Task: structure prediction
Amino acid sequence: MAWQRTALGIGAVSALLLHHARGRVGLSVPGGAGLLAALALLLVIEARNVRSHRDVESGRSPMGRALVRAVSLGVVLLALAAITVILGAGS
Result:
């Protein structure tokens, strides 16, 4: 469930960025990319959940370090985009 909440949070921030962009293409890119990333993450975690159940049943570890790193990097990039948009709105 934590991954689902992360994906939903990414999607929410991305939707807010799209809303704030008001049709400006340059500002819409991070929001659109974030929404696509959130959707991709939801699909990946569903597949991981199925695989994790199989791994646990067979005694293997279900941890995927590459996914943790990729999502962490994506969240940081999305946060930087949001900060940039917010700071740019004040000027």
User: Anything to note?
Assistant: Helices lie at 2-21, 25-58, 65-89. The chain is about 85% helix and 0% strand. The chain has one domain: 2-89. The chain has a mean pLDDT of 86.
